[in-house]
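Hi,

Apologies if this is the wrong queue. I'm a grad student, and the batch job for DUF6188 family protein from Angustibacter luteus produced an output file that my downstream script rejects. I'm not sure whether the problem is my script or the file. Here is the sequence I used:
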Amino acid sequence: MGSEVEQELDDRWWLGLRKRALESVDVHEFVVVLNFAGGSVLSIEAAATVRAVSAPGTETAVVTRMADGTVWTSEVLMSLVGQQLLVSVGFKDGALRLVFESGLMLDVPHDEQYEAWQLTGVSGRRWVSLPGGGPATFPGGPS
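Support response: The file is valid. Your script probably expects a header line. Output copied below for reference.
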């Protein structure tokens, strides 16, 4: 279940955030930023939902992209602060899934027009969900 190391598989990336706690959620006009222990940062610029792992079909919108490009978020996302991740997966179709210790799962599908999400991992590697689907990834390391 999940991985503490970044690893590429056939259809997904283990993003290496297992056991990392969500430290804060910052809401800006066009992006929601999740900061994790160890310095990893996730930016969400498109729709995202949360549901209980045990309750498929009961999604709650936690990030909504408005017609003018601004984003809105809900208290449900804020309630995840302090929780550790059990699973962090970036799928090769551009979707993202994070599963928290509470059993809540955050899903960010790819977006047709926007980079739905971007993650800078523990190693500095960066993943970007491209408009229309699919990921781009850039190795970390010294600049």
